[in-house]
Amino acid sequence: MILYDEVPEISEYIEQVKNGEYPVCLWQKRLVFFIEKVFSNEILTIKTDVLKNYMGLQKYFPFDLLPWEKFCFTLHNCVFREDGLPRFPDLLIFVGRGAGKNGYLAFEDFCLISPYHEVREYDIDICATGEDQARMSFDDVYNVLENPKNRKKLRKHFYWNKEVIKGIKNNSKLKYRTNNAKTKDGLRSGKVDFDEVHAYETYDSIKVFTTALGKKPHPRRTYATTNGDISDGVLDDLIEKADKILPKIDNNGVPNWEDTIEDNGMLCFICMLDRKEEYADEKMWHKANPSLRYFPNLYEETKKEYIDYCDNPDANSDFMTKRMNIREGINKEIQLTDWENIKATNQPIPWEDLEGQSAIAGIDYTKINDFASCGLLFRKNGKFIWFQQTWVCKNSKDLPRIKYDMKGALRKGEIIMVDGLEIDPDLISEWIAQQMTKYNIQRVALDNYRLSLIKKSLEKVGIIYDPDKKMKDQVIQLVRPSNIELVEPIIDSAFTNHNIIWGDCQTMRWYANNTKKVQTKKNGNYQYKKIEAKSRKTDGFFAFAAAMTQWEDLPEILPPPPQLQAFVF
Q1: Which domain range does residue 124 map to?
Q2: Interstrand relation of 440-447 and 475-479 (parallel, antiparallel or unpaired)
Q3: How many CA atoms lie within 13 A of 301 on its CB side?
Q4: Same domain, 362 and 481
Q5: Which residue has the higher pLDDT, 523 or 191?
Q6: Residue pLDDT, tens place only, 62-112
Q7: Which tens digit of pLDDT belongs to each residue from 459-475?
Q8: What is the pTM of this model?
């Protein structure tokens, strides 16, 4: 059996991480610990003869693989379990812009349709959300074949045109695919590449391609991407999974394996700054881009973008998002809050402590044939606790535009689909009535426009509009834009200090991430607006904001009194 440290394609990069000549991020250190443990605990085979043949194909390309690329390639394609299956069939490459991920994909795919790959009819699909991106790695292979220096020799082994590249010996095909998931049934892929996976908001297209895997031996997936502006999408899921697979490292540099999960064949190669503040130190840029030391032109271009970013961060946020792999989000002047603050709302809801307690209901019900949202707000230990219910009309004209994991939200009960021409307001009032059996709903907050839609329905369940303010509880409280402007600093502070609890509600995170702040010219206060009118819904967040306007009148849930102890004399 050959050990990994006897294979330079693996050991060279591990040594680079360990010797510290260039800074590497914590993700890479965690990865090295992970790889060393895998090889020490499992019976694995490295097919060095096949690897040598693959590496020999570099002569046809205008570049040689860098150490980190050889490392990923070898583990992904040439390391096998005791039962003969690939040890790491799934590979995530998350690197800064310019690192060469498309060149890597082109080389890997070229090898796997070459005569050196033993699996016949090993079709490979390169997938992206747009055709230009999907074609990039395909065109890299096509250009290798079209090179006059290579054409005559490679014509014996490959057939190609601008739509498909075929390995003749094994009858394997390389194609590029765009993001139309409806047309991909019946695929028999051996490998699927997802290029710029940060652009995938849902798993719809990914599922179509990955469920086709397994019809051929040694199925593989490669996810290659930089960071992007889509939050709570596929990339975030992959990074979260990687964080559970790779061990945390304590202050003494010792890995902690207690909270890790089975990798299930996933190889996680992640490069990014450890902290956003590191962007100001040029040496730290190597953490996000392991190719930077090899390409002076790339370094100079990164430096130019850094200078532009320092001069105008809002106009040049791609420096952080794409070069440093730290998500900047949308323009800071209009961003609701940092994505990390939105993720921090995923704290457990203390359901038992809420029973019988006072709450404020908030409603956002803009169109009867679109979305509607209602939720309850509580206060406990300085935190704002909120849970919601959303109704979606199946006839909404905006649904085809929406890129959101609606199916996942439906499974979790966060969204209810209404099969009708409109969302009946009684659905909302009946939900409130159900909550009234458990909680003391003091009032229902909504704006004047929503009042005309739902007033009569709320009266059916005992929630009365009382403009003369003769009643104290179970009343409708009208909320004006100025009320929300005044509570915006409270909401902003609660986000910043992680004092908002929504539980694991992906729909509320989606609503919040679709919301921006716009500063008014009149008084300098901020108003909440939609980032985009039709494809980004904000109903749940506006319902939350409406309820928050009443926060000062909402009593805080107190801890239970200490139990008295009986003393026997």
Answers
A1: 4-270
A2: parallel
A3: 14
A4: yes
A5: 191
A6: 999 999 999 999 999 999 999 999 999 999 999 999 999 999 999 999 999
A7: 999 998 877 776 667 78
A8: 0.76
Please state, as a whole number, how many other Cβ atoms lie within 10 Å of the Cβ of residue 91. Answer: 23
Q: What H or E segment, with its residue span, contains residue 88?
A: none
- DSSP one-letter string for 356-397: T-EEEEEEE---TTSEEEEEEEEEETTEEEEEEEEEEETT-T
> How far lies 229's CA from each of 11, 132, 226, 327, 531, in Å?
35, 19, 10, 6, 13
Q: Annotate 445-477 with b (16+ C-beta within 10 A) or e (fewer).
A: bbbeebbebbbebbeebebebeeeeeeeebbbb
| Lookup: tokens for 551 | 């926060």
Q: Which residues pair with 526 in a beta bridge?
A: 519
Residue with tokens 């710029």: 196
- Residue 342 CB contacts under 8 Å (≥ 6 apart), including other chains: 231, 336, 495, 509, 512, 513
Number of domains composing the chain: 3
Let me know if residue 429 belongs to a domain. yes
pLDDT for 181 beyond 50 = no
pLDDT surpassing 90 at residue 550? yes
| φ and ψ of 408, to 5 deg | -65, -40
Number of H helices and number of E strands within the chain?
Answer: 20, 22
Strand partners, 515: 530
d(CA 483, CA 480): 5
What is the pLDDT, as a whole number, of residue 569?
A: 45
> Is residue 568 assigned to a domain?
no
Q: Are 388 and 543 in contact (CB under 8 A)?
A: yes
Pick from 89, 65, 66: which is nearest to 77 by CA?
89
312 lies in the same domain as 241: no
**Would you state the torsion angle of the CA atoms of residues 311, 314, 318, 321, taken in this order, to the nearest 10 degrees?**
110
Nearest to 509 by CA among 405, 436, 376: 405
Q: Is 425 helix (H, G, I), strand (E, B) or coil?
A: helix
